[in-house]
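Researcher: We plan to redesign the surface later, but first we want a full-length starting point. Tokens attached.
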């Protein structure tokens, strides 16, 4: 009995110390979504259980090492113990109950944070190698940075143009894969006026680590202003100069992740001076860059690989771009080269 009180006391003290230690370190970044509240609570609960399990093992071990150590002159065997059914039943049933309870808590929390609420705002998220695009279907606006209003639940509809990506803002706590050919959903209710980083949490190739975008949580008024500013800019750009329209489109479609327009080499060839040039292909042949070649390079990028580059351009643009968009991109690449002629005396 003395030993039981001793070991229970030791475990209680160790549990309290470990739990206090664990909760004093900042393991998570600030929380910025309503969905994060039950998740952080569950996380904290897990830490407490972990503290107890740690103390349970270490406590028994320390107690045995100190109290039951061999005394001088003690050379006999210890007692032989042939199982203990009561103990075995307890250490089977109790952990089973704990695990089932956590399973229950997890299920309830998950179904709670994914269920629809009133007045949601839909934002379509498209991942591509290696950029994010955000479409606001109700407002007809597209953006490469994510702007969301404070306090309103956003229903993200995620998809991908090429490989699997994963939409992740650690401060929001929730995460969802963007899978080509599928639409996945995620709900977030922002609770902090701040700017955070969106990361891709699924290894997706060469520049995976650079697949970042900003999320700005704005007051509802500022958000409405931003939307109408974007709508105006869009309307203005539609009739605006090709260099402007083209650069917007190349950014929205993620071309800029691999193509520069200033002559610098990136994952793909720069577009500066491309039009009209003689391009050397990987098989040694030469081809004159005209509209047909550019169109072919966008739709079937694997066909004619440029010398010195790898076949990493997504083959999906033929499907995801409209004819209008392809025309705009061709005209843009053309315009870039003409501008170059004029700029280089
Ligand atoms: Cu990615």
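Model: Full-length starting sequence:
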């Amino acid at each position: 009995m003395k030993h039981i009180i001793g070991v229970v006391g030791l475990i209680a003290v160790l549990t309290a110390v470990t739990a206090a230690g664990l909760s004093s370190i900042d393991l998570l970044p600030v929380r910025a979504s309503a969905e994060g509240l039950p998740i952080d609570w569950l996380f904290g609960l897990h830490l407490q259980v972990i503290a107890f399990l740690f103390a349970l093992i270490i406590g028994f071990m320390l107690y045995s090492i100190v109290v039951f150590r061999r005394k001088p002159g003690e050379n006999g065997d210890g007692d032989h113990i042939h199982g203990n059914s009561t103990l075995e039943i307890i250490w089977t049933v109790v952990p089973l109950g704990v695990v089932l309870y956590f399973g229950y808590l997890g299920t309830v929390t998950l179904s709670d944070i994914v269920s629809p609420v009133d007045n949601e705002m839909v934002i379509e998220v498209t991942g591509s190698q290696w950029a994010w695009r955000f479409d606001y279907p109700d407002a007809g606006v597209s953006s490469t940075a994510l702007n969301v209003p404070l306090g309103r639940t956003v229903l993200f509809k995620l998809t991908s143009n090429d490989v699997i990506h994963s939409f992740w803002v650690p401060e929001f706590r929730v995460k969802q894969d963007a899978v080509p050919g599928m639409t996945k959903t995620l709900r977030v209710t922002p609770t902090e006026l701040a700017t955070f980083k969106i990361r891709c949490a699924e290894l997706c190739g060469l520049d995976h680590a650079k697949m970042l975008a900003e999320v700005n949580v704005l007051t509802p008024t500022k958000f409405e202003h931003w939307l109408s500013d974007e709508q105006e800019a869009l309307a203005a750009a539609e009739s605006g100069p090709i260099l402007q329209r083209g650069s917007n489109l190349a950014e929205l479609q993620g071309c800029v992740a691999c193509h520069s327009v200033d002559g610098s080499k990136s994952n793909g060839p720069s577009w500066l001076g491309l039009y009209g040039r003689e391009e050397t292909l990987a098989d040694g042949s030469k081809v004159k860059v005209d509209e047909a070649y550019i169109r072919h390079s966008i739709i079937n990028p694997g066909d004619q690989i440029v010398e010195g580059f790898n076949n990493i351009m997504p083959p999906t643009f033929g499907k995801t771009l409209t004819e209008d968009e392809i025309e705009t991109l061709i005209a843009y690449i053309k315009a870039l080269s003409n501008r170059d002629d004029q700029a280089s005396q």
